[in-house]
Amino acid sequence: MKKTVFALLFFSFGTLLAQEESKPKDSTCTDKVKINMSFGFNVLANDAFNLNKKLRSQNITELNETIPSLVLGLDFFGEKMSGDIEFGFLYSNPDQNSVEILQVGFDIRSKVHYNVVNKEKFAFTTGLSLAFTTNEIDIFSKSNTIDLNDLNPNNNSGHISLTNQMFYAGPSFSLYLFKKSFPIKVNAGYEFGLTRGRYKSDFGSVINNIKENGNNRFVFGFVIL
């Protein structure tokens, strides 16, 4: 799956750059692809985690379904086409009574857009977003006692560690503002969860597994170029 995602991202940007580089030699400077570093944040608003149904049935604190993400990336902007590739870090830490959950993740997202409006100081673009997200979820019992004289893992409990991966695709749009002075970009989109997203663990076998496909999400972002 990871190889497939990277191949799709590479193909998307290869297509974008090929389109721009195939323009006639006498094109004006506005025809060239501008490449900028970008940094900012995204907010991922998930429809619902199926894992929360399991947690809720056992009166355990649930995963936050709205998760912030810090992003760093590259933005590509040409006369007719634009896009970007982002690398994001997700973090969430819900805490309730005696149970705490730590959720961290890594997000790779690529967008390929058509420039609907391209003015000197303003632009509006729309197109397709592809994303791959990997999550690690640790569920802790805060009342667990750790005895350093007994570090045999078979005698200690109170920690569950799970991982899953998801591939998303969906429509998106971007709004470029203050392009000549202090360029910023506002992103929004809706991503459909396409893969199963079954849970795994590095510390044991997972039984009674569930899927996270169908857990779609809204994505809102703000980056500085």
Keywords:
single chain, disordered N terminus, mainly beta, 225 residues, 8-stranded antiparallel β-barrel, elongated
Provide a quick synopsis of the model.
By secondary structure, the protein is mainly beta. It has two helices and nine strands; from the N terminus they run H-E-H-E-E-E-E-E-E-E-E. A hairpin with a 2-residue loop joins strand 4 and strand 5 (99-118).
- Neighbour order of strands in the largest sheet: 1-2-3-5-6-7-8-9
Q: Quickly count the helices.
A: 2
Tertiary shape: elongated
Assembly form of the protein: single chain
| Strand-residue proportion | over 45%
Distance between the termini: 30 Å
Largest beta-sheet details:
8 strands, antiparallel, barrel
**Radius of gyration (Å):** 21 Å
Order of helices and strands: HEHEEEEEEEE
Helix content: 10-25%
User: Could you report the average pLDDT, rounded to the nearest whole number?
Assistant: 86
Q: Based on helices, strands and strand pairing, what is the structural class?
A: mainly beta
Contiguous uncertain segments of 5+ residues? 1-13, 15-30
Topology, number of strands: 9
Provide a descriptive summary of the structure in words.
12% of the residues lie in helices and 52% in strands. It has 225 residues and is mostly beta strands. An eight-stranded antiparallel β-barrel has the order 1-2-3-5-6-7-8-9. The protein starts with a helix and ends with a strand. The model is unreliable at 1-13 and 15-30 (pLDDT under 50).
